[in-house]
């Protein structure tokens, strides 16, 4: 006697999902590829059909057909010490990952150093990714010049070389307005000589936050070049900059720093001079991360929505890849978080 072997069940196909959901094959494809152009009702119907049929998209076949990798690169041209020591980058990664979790795209994080710009550029243009998010770029970073002519790219903050990045897409925060608001707050508190610890001048946040300070102190008739110094966004550089400011003999009753790390570093130098925060010198940072929350006293700071920044960058890039309409420039607002340092 021969035994009958049950036929294996048919492997669910895209067409079967479309029939079960009552939509077209192309609509199912859009949902599977993470498109945001379908309605919520249609997306729910397709997702329900996928679950009922246990449909698994054929990523390899889809990549061959579309010439897509379903991979997005997040490129941070900084040292590993900077990337893993600055909570700003963790917030960006969190926001990007949160958005991509609801798509078919995988995140590939690259910590790129300019000692090998050719390596970064070759990888990005070698068919390995569908698009790139560039965070913390400097004016000397040449790996990305004209990159957007070939690959969808979204920057965190405006690219500084306009000629190299004509028509590029970027998402940023309103650094200038945020810093102006910090100065307004200090003036309202009676401060009359407000110094600034600016960030690197080869980066958009370093330039724009210093410009916000300049605009505000000019409006109040307080501008003085002796009240300006610079750091590299680390606590140590904030302490060194504050020491230099205090050594000039110019009266200072407040200081704003381009990020929270440098602001907390300034605390050290202020105390070394036998002064207190905020009685002698009020301090305001920029970012709103755990450096400010755990400082003594807790730091007044300009909140920038870093998680939202990462998520918005990812959204813009996915839409670019999928040829959906999207704004070229997106600017997110900041807000002032007042604590005991001012």
Number of strands: 12
Instruction: Briefly note the structural class of the backbone.
Output: alpha/beta
The helix/strand order is HHHHEHHEHEEEHEHEHEHEHEHEE
Rg over CA atoms, rounded to whole Å, is 25 Å
CATH architecture of the largest domain: 3-Layer(aba) Sandwich
Shape: elongated
Compute the number of helices.
Answer: 13
Give the low-pLDDT segments.
1-8, 59-65
Q: Would you write up a description of this structure?
A:
The protein has 13 helices and twelve strands. By secondary structure, it is α/β, with parallel strands linked by helices. The N and C termini lie far apart (91 Å). Helix 1 (14-21) crosses helix 3 (40-53), helix 6 packs across helix 13 and helix 8 (175-188) packs parallel to helix 9. The chain is elongated and about 80 Å long. The protein folds into three domains: 14-57, 434 Repressor (Amino-terminal Domain); 71-174 and 306-334, Response regulator (Rossmann fold), CATH 3.40.50.2300; 175-304, Rossmann fold, CATH 3.40.50.2300. It has helices at residues 14-21, 25-32, 40-53, 59-66, 80-85, 87-100, 117-125, 175-188, 204-219, 235-247, 260-272, 290-293, 306-321, and strands spanning 71-76, 106-111, 131-134, 153-156, 169-173, 194-198, 228-230, 254-257, 282-287, 300-303, 329-332, 335-337. The chain has a six-stranded parallel sheet, with helices on one face.
């Amino acid at each position: 006697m021969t035994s009958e072997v049950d036929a294996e069940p048919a492997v669910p196909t895209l067409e079967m999902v479309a029939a079960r959901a009552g939509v077209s094959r192309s609509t199912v494809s859009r949902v599977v590829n993470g498109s945001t152009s379908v309605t919520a009702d249609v997306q729910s119907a397709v997702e329900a059909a996928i679950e009922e049929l246990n449909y698994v998209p054929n990523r390899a076949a889809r990549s061959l057909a579309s010439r897509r990798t379903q991979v997005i690169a997040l490129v941070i041209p900084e040292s590993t010490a900077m990337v893993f020591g600055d909570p700003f980058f963790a917030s960006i990664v969190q926001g990007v990952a949160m958005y991509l979790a609801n798509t078919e795209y995988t995140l590939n994080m690259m910590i790129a150093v300019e000692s090998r710009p050719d390596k970064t550029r070759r990888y990005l243009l070698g068919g390995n990714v569908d698009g790139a998010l560039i965070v913390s770029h400097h004016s000397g970073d040449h790996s990305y010049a004209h990159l957007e002519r070939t690959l969808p790219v979204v920057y965190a903050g405006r690219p500084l070389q306009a000629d190299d990045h004509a028509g590029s897409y970027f998402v940023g925060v309103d650094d200038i307005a945020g810093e102006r608001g910090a100065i307004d707050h200090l003036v309202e508190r009676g401060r009359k000589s407000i110094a600034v610890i600016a960030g690197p001048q080869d980066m958009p946040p370093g330039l724009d936050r210093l410009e916000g300070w300049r605009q505000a102190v000019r409006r109040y008739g307080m501008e003085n070049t002796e009240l300006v110094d610079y750091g590299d966004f680390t606590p140590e550089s904030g302490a060194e900059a504050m020491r230099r400011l205090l050594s000039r003999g110019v009266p200072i009753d407040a200081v704003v720093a381009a990020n929270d790390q440098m602001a907390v570093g300034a605390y050290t130098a202020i105390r070394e001079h036998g002064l207190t925060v905020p009685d002698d010198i009020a301090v305001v940072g920029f970012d709103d991360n755990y450096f400010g929350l755990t400082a003594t006293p807790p730091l007044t700071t300009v909140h920038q929505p870093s998680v939202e920044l990462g998520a918005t960058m990812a959204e813009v890039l996915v839409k670019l890849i999928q040829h959906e309409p999207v704004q070229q420039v997106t600017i997110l607002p900041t807000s002032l978080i007042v604590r005991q340092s001012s």
